[in-house]
């Protein structure tokens, strides 16, 4: 069957969308819908974990959301972050986001190339540090497990929650749904327990998302990034080209 409409499980871009070219090229409809929301973990709940923010010398950030909630909790708990605190980020974009809260100094901020193993190698150069890792309630253990295997001192701190959005109004008459995280897969399961991935194809971005799709029992039709398709738009373009006119 020819592809007529695609659902992107992300908020609609404010400016030009990278999917606009696909809309014009294949005369399709592309809709955007956020599949989950981020909710702050209240300070009173954070205290139950008995994590002393003052006992850490470094913080690891894997997302901008983690940065927001670390500084939010620090303020709510009246923890004055010392000027000696070091910050290690997954990539440069996340590191630059720290400008929102602190004065950016290279001696305090380091970042990897966006790869988990590269981040682990970076952190391994500082085995004396005591690392705090702010995470969501439904986080993956990939990074923390690798750090522990390196004998690094790291503590996960659940700082925010990921809550599935109500998507039942969609009706789900889409030919392709594009997912970008395991949380998106979870939202799809919760909102549409009878979802048929044979009828409505699934595209997934990222290794963890692909694993979550398979684990949920869905058929994974399109995946990215790959050496051939480093972006989701490129993967969709190839798929649409193959299915054009069918």
What is the strand and helix layout of this fold?
Blueprint: E1 5-8, H1 20-26, E2 29-32, E3 36-40, H2 43-47, E4 58-61, H3 64-76, E5 86-89, H4 92-97, E6 109-111, H5 116-124, E7 130-136, H6 142-149, E8 153-164, E9 176-179, H7 182-191, E10 201-205, H8 207-215, E11 220-224, H9 232-243
Parallel strand pairs: 1-2, 1-9, 4-5, 4-7, 5-6, 7-8, 9-10, 10-11
Antiparallel strand pairs: 3-8
Write structural notes for this entry:
The protein is an alpha/beta fold and 246 residues long. Among the domains are: 39-162, Rossmann fold; 166-175 and 188-201 and 215-223, no CATH class. Helix content is 32%, strand content 23%. It is built from 9 helices and 11 strands. It has helices at 20-26, 43-47, 64-76, 92-97, 116-124, 142-149, 182-191, 207-215, 232-243, and strands at residues 5-8, 29-32, 36-40, 58-61, 86-89, 109-111, 130-136, 153-164, 176-179, 201-205, 220-224. The strands form 2 sheets. The protein has a 6-stranded mixed beta sheet with strand order 3-8-7-4-5-6. A 5-stranded parallel beta sheet has the order 2-1-9-10-11. Strand 9, helix 7 and strand 10 form a beta-alpha-beta unit. The chain is elongated, with a radius of gyration of 20 Å. The model has no long low-confidence stretch (mean pLDDT 93).
For this entry, give a set of tags.
32% helix, 23% strand, single chain, 11 strands, 246 residues, Rossmann fold, alpha/beta, six-stranded mixed beta sheet
Short description:
The chain contains 9 helices and 11 strands.
